[in-house]
Write a structure and sequence with these properties.
binds calcium ion; 12-stranded parallel beta sheet; 27-stranded mixed beta sheet
Amino acid sequence: MAVYSDGNEHPKLPTRNESTMTRPLPAVAAIAAASVALAVLAAAPAATAAPPWSAPPPDPVVTRAALDPALTEGRGADVPFLEQEAENARTNGIVLEAGRDAYTVAGEASGRSAVSLAPGQWVEFTLPAPTNAITVRYSIPDAEDGGGITAPLRITTKNKPYTLTMTSQYAYLYNQYPFTNDPNAGLLHPDWWITECSCVPQFDLPDFQPDKPFRPMKFFDEERVLFDKTYQAGDVIRLTAPHGVAATVIDLIDTEIVGPPREVRKAENVLQYGADRHGRKDSAPAIEKAVAAAHTSGLPVYLPPGTYRVDRHIVVDDVTIIGAGHWYTKVKGREVALSTPAPDGSVHTGVGFYGKDAADGGSRNVHISGLAIEGDVRERIDTDQVNGIGGAFSDSTFRDLHIQHTKVGIWLDGPMSNVTIEDSIIVDQIADAVNLHRGVTDSRVVNTFVRNTGDDGLAMWAETDQNGGNVFERNTVQSPTLANGIAIYGGRDNTVARNLVADPVREGSGLHAGARFGAEPFEGTLSFTDNTTVRAGGFELNWRIGLGSLWIYALDRSIDGAIRVTGDHYLDSTYNAIMMVSEWAVRNDVAITDVAFQDVRVDGTGTSVLSARVAGGASFENVDARNVGAVGINNCGSFNFPPTGSEFTVTDLGGNDGGGTIGPWMAAWELPNTITCDDRPPVVTPPPPSPWAQP
Ligand SMILES: [Ca+2]
């Protein structure tokens, strides 16, 4: 989540002196305008001559989150596909200059770069392995008045052309939370403080008009194609931009071998109950009949290959639903406006499998696997239940799912216990990919791949009822366009382990623990273990300071539960590797007191290893850093600057080696609490991450 529960969009800047709050800064609106203009700029004729089709193909550059896979060994989801970034491929278009600013196309691209193609231009990839399926992440412009466009992308293989339909109908959100599809809208909340003028326009600057489109975001979408034959390693696939589209931006492709569809004979087959596998007729009643039959027969429900139209929730309890695999079985629906709001406040409904409400006891023993859920959610309405999976489930599993274009892929409202989400792909969401909300216990999200969320990738939110004993393990989260890769809001004894998080953009970072949004306290031990982040720790637009790739934020209350960070790797942090922070207004009321870092590697920070902007402290043991851009410890404490030193104490437990431009990152002179506070030290861009020599 990136917006405060009190309705304020911004925390006040815990700045060192008032002058930095009022100093005019480069208008973000200007950056926004520049990024939209990019689509036009990128359409300029390219100078690069096209190599002939017969030229020997370049070697493929296979990456994970735009990194050498060797740098992420053992972390992140074990996915069946191989990623290739377009910026590493051969093209006669333009490689976008790498950049991490919000509201820019490059900033939202994987690896923070992509290729922009004018009509007829192309990018081509050499296949690293046999391939019969491809996923393309792309961006095309919005319609002039919003709402998106569609256009064909030509895919040429050595003996056959295919066409993939690109759309920007699910891309492009503008303006202030909860955003709009209208690029021409004025401020949605003129009575909110905004960073663009450092003012509340309605009261301070009634004539203020933001540049339009204001704060454009969510430029990308992705689409996939299953070929009817298998191509070999070394074969070339060329993507050619359509005519009539000023610029087609290709971010990356994923290629893989998809196995044959799964057939389940001993099952309640939805076709027997009248489902339409061609996606024309509403299949919800047929699926419900099959579910009812399954309750009697004890068999699973089977959805053979096909597209099944479902425009509302299917409520499930005590049933197993199996598809032929998420490349073959798709449950797809339109978002439907309700004539009267539902009791839960929804004004729309849409495709989704829902458990019974927790208030009604929830559902139990539900197992759904092997299918895709494709929604039709184009705007963010927080009261709408338009999620791929929703409601309350205990003792349930969700496996091998592909969820796209819903509001939140899987939003669970507990209390509930023992849910497993595994081996799934959740992409192109308006908000989170997964949120374990309210009293979710002993549940796991494992080996799941997340890309292009409009809010936190994976979240645990202990609102009202305490969460506990949950695990996020071996997941990959890429390019959340708002908020965090992985966020933990309160909870007891939760674990975040062996995940890979890349390229968060704004109002959040890679890994986050926050005492905020009305969450229950942190209790027991929150563990961050063996995670890797890359290109996180970016610029916080409202505070106007750099975050940390991991950031711990005490807002509603102190964080005095134990937080143990062990074995994490923070690579290429845009600003800091680690931030511990409070809010200016509560800086004398809260502290973060029981945090220990051990065996952590920091490779490349634009500024510091640790930015401390809260009272309390942390211990460090064997935290090694290199390519550190600023002072290792930027210690502001809680900004009272007493003569006894900062209110934040650093405990050196030994073995904290390495550093950067200023010398050792943990130098004796910084300990235990030397005030080194600098809101905005100059950023020194580090070299790209590289292998860490074995000790
Ligand atoms: Ca890219």
